Amino acid sequence: MTLFIISILIFVGVEALPGDLTEAVLGQSATPETVAAFRKELKLDLPPHIRYLSWLGGIVRGEFGNSLANGRPIADLIGWRIGNSLFLAATTAAIAVPLSILLGIVAALYRNSFFDRAISMVTLSTISFPEFFVAYILIALLSVQLIIFPSISNINAQMPFLEKIHAIVLPCLTLTLVVVAHMMRQTRAAIINILASPFIEMAKLKGLKKTRIVIFHAFPNALSPVINVVAVNLAYLVAGVVIVEVVFVFPGLGQLLVDSVSKRDIPVVQASGLIFASVYITLNLLADMLSIISNPRLRNPK
Amino acid sequence: MQNPHILVIKQLVIEGQSGSQWTPIVKGIDLTLKKGEVLGLIGESGAGKSTLGLAAMGYTQQGCRISSGSIQFNGMELVGALKSDLRRLRGNRIAYVAQSAAASFNPAHRLIKQYAEAPIQHGLMGFAEAEQKAVDIYRQLLLPDPENIGYRYPHQVSGGQLQRAMVAMAMACQPDIIVFDEPTTALDVTTQIEVLAAIKQITREYNTAAIYITHDLAVVAQLADRIMVLRHGNLVEESDAREMLADPKEDYTRQLLSVRTLRDGKALSIFDRDVILEVENASASYNGSDMVLEEIDLSIKRGRTIALVGESGSGKSTLARVITGLLPPSQGRIIFDGQELPGKLADRDRETLRRMQMIYQMPDTALNPRQRISKIIGRPISFYADINGREKDVRIKELLDMVELPATYMDRYPSELSGGEKQRICIARALAAEPDLIICDEVTSALDQLVAEGVLQLLQRLQAELGVSYLFITHDLATVKAIADEIIVMLNGRIVDAGSARCGLRNHCPIGQGAASTLIIGVGLNGRGKNKLPHLACLLTRLRRCVNGPIQ
Amino acid sequence: MAFFKLLRSSPLSARIGLAIVLINIAAAILAPVISPYGETEIVGDVWVSPSPDHYLGTDHLGRDLFTRLVYGARNTIAIAFVTTVLSFMVGALCGFFAATLGGWTDLSLSRGVDIIMAFPTLIFALMVLSVVGTSITSLIIVIALLDSTRVFRLSRAVAMDIEIMEFVEAARLRGEGTWWLMRHEILPNAMPPLVAEFGLRFCFVFLFIAALSFLGLGIQPPTADWGSMVMENAGAITFGIFTPLVPAGAIAFLTVGVNLIVDWFLHLASGLED
């Protein structure tokens, strides 16, 4: 349902706003004849709702239409880039999620310790930095000074797995740093919130061991907020990928989106925007569902 | 020779952290407890009674520390004891029953699992045995369906049942001492009685010693063998329960004890027969179908006080909303001084609004924290009477004087005032409109007992001077006795009983009687106000969480 | 006076934050005075190392980097500030209205915001900007509108929490109108969280504009702007020249500064309450 509304929004947003597509593509010197021909070819002369339906119908069948810039089918353009972006995002998630949960829990358990303060300072600064700043610092350190990793992550399908991993170390590290900062802070806050509950005090007054209190009493209740934090941050990762891909010239969907925007290649913008949005919405929905499943109150209704 | 005392506390000092300073909360208190004895710890908020109770378990809350003194349990010193030794005692030999069962049960586990946890972890028995014992204890505590109730989750049982389940949980290891920390305060009057009975019965049966912490003398009178009265961390008086109730030595105790007898014979005014407000056959609902009020009839005479009594959820606050126009009635009429009022607030004229004022339960939330007292009291003056400038200041000072506050309070903010003073400002704000009727919604229940009494006295004096009528909403029969001319009892949105304060209730309905018999005094957290505390601090915490949120 | 007293009691972190913000504001205001060259003036070779002539060296076209940085402060901060103010005016007003009026107004506004927020902001902005073009006005309006959804959420939630307080009911019973309720009862109490939020949203908008400029879709050359300066000089990094780190660092520097102040403010405001 939400996706449907979003698809309308994308279409209307892109089609109805000022700025004529034809003029953008053909330039100002276009003759009226070429403009008319161009509009006909792209079916721009049809009324909007018909164009919307045919566009939507195409998407459902997996046909996104053709790119304006080079006339190739969009599905071909996007296909392998989605794989690359997902590879980057998945690798980042695989590192960032366990790491940040672990750090968050440790920071919450040893609140106000040196470790907690130090990590809170570091994450606060990381949050304040733009992604590209983190990226360029890493390039300056690891790629220019130490020459360990390439500053441009060009990967293709033929590369062996290990080489791929080597190529994406820097973008992956950049994303990890930024995502871990957010996720770890939220995990810490969620755990501290749980540890302050009266039932934890009750457990202490029952004379239970600290490990039992954490595992048996705190953990089941912390699950729901932490899952939520993870899902929300993964959604963030989807958007964060765009900038990092541009910095490292990584052949992913984000790069394509940015390129298409500057070329005003509207169909590609629409298609890749829709894909980003779907992933984002799916993750948010997943977060809602998981937090219901993991919340004992909601799982066992009255 | 064996020491008859199971717990001996000597010269205990506990300090709490405020900012960077440590200030004493408990100031050198001695306490002893014999086997099977029930000791009542009583005092107003801030007396240090909960802190002392927790200290009996060798435990202090975060931000508190035991700075000197000794706590001996069965001859074992708890101050400075090893953490593991303390752990072995807690839940095993000394157990704790908290004020809010709803918050103190882990929402993720079934009741029985939490019951069995302490005995299993302390190595006393296996799960099967614990399960069996639980059913026994649940039965003794008169929990419904004792065989199966343990397999529910905490949010699946009612508040009173949950509180009893917590008492059961405390009994799981058959401890020597149980510390009860206001276990009935958050409950309704009728539920309170059930829980108290359960506690009384079970401690007798197992010969368990208990420390019972409360601010409510009526409760202590029922349970305790001995009573200690605390104030500001000091011991005021200690003696046998019966002795103390019959013959209190200290003034403070006497004040706490004195059943409020404020009302003296009211001179009949010339308006005596004059009715200021009439509600005729009024019904109301929030969603259009489920009636929360049904066929209410009520009339308030000029210069008189009518008390509206009932448990939370009985519809008494809803009735106030209907009268003030916040919730238009679905049927029935409201007649104010002979004129029928429109149901909706927006349709009433300013003059009507002026003549009917309201005072709330929580002075904290009833006063805008960002307005000075002069603006809070001054606004109704300029709004209704269009008086401004110096004349308004004079009037504000008069009003402050009327509620026995100094004129210098004009420039203060509410946060600079105490709870009782804030409530007086609320009264002054209501008086500023020069009303004929004031609706008082649980105005004393958030206040400490002595402060509440002062407020009640003030209200009575003002009534005598100004001839204003009160509609007094409360669930506290002691307040009713003190101030009301007439009583109306509500249950499930209907009026079930009515009568004059002097002659008693006509129908002798069980709620009125139940409440009267236990003389529940000021059940602090009852009623509507409890959900309204999310104050600025909470907003800020919430915001803080947003701060850490991701940028998308 | 009270302000100075407050300042004296402030922790080190807040003072650092304040200093950072003041330096940036001063640079922005005094840009023409303190910068040695013109904003778009080409004064030397490409990527010259720092020297007394060029404090921070030159950029990819041989323009003085320090001058560009100072003018960049002016443009970037001013645009981010205007955007944030606009987004607050729209968001807070709608939020307060939704909370005080409730019912239909609240429902339609909230649903609308839900839909916009179901979409990643960066992607949304990219798509809209691809159509309307990247003039500074459209940049400000698009970002302000997108950002106002979050302001709306917060101010609605804050106003709702205040709305249920009895002093609002008391004012309502007195017969006060909606405007008075918003202006005198709700707004003063909503100020602390809103002020803090203003700082955070400013950071966000600031980073967001920087990111868009970095992607080449924000403030267009030759206007000096920190985000696009990073992008223009990005190539230098592979030669071991750290020119792009300077504007990127400036962005980070200012955001950290604002964050430090906001943190102190939140601490202060929540401390006053208890």
What does this entry look like structurally?
The complex is a heterotrimer of chains A (302), B (552) and C (274). By secondary structure, chain A is mainly alpha-helical. Chain A folds into two domains: 2-60, no CATH class; 74-299, MetI-like fold. Chain A is built from 14 helices and no strands. In chain B, 36% of the residues lie in helices and 25% in strands. In chain B, the strands form four sheets. Chain B has a seven-stranded mixed sheet with strand order 16-17-18-13-19-20-21, with helices on both faces. A six-stranded mixed sheet of chain B has the order 6-7-8-3-9-10, sandwiched between helices. In chain B, strands 2-1-4-5 form a four-stranded antiparallel sheet, with helices on one face. The N and C termini of chain B lie far apart (73 Å). Chain C is 74% helix and 0% strand. Chain C contains eleven helices and no strands. Chain C has helices spanning 2-8, 12-29, 31-34, 65-101, 103-117, 121-132, 136-163, 166-174, 178-214, 226-232, 245-273. Chain C starts with a helix and ends with a helix. Chains in contact: A-B, A-C, B-C. At the A-C interface, helix 1, helix 6, helix 7, helix 11 and helix 12 of A face helix 6, helix 9 and helix 11 of C.
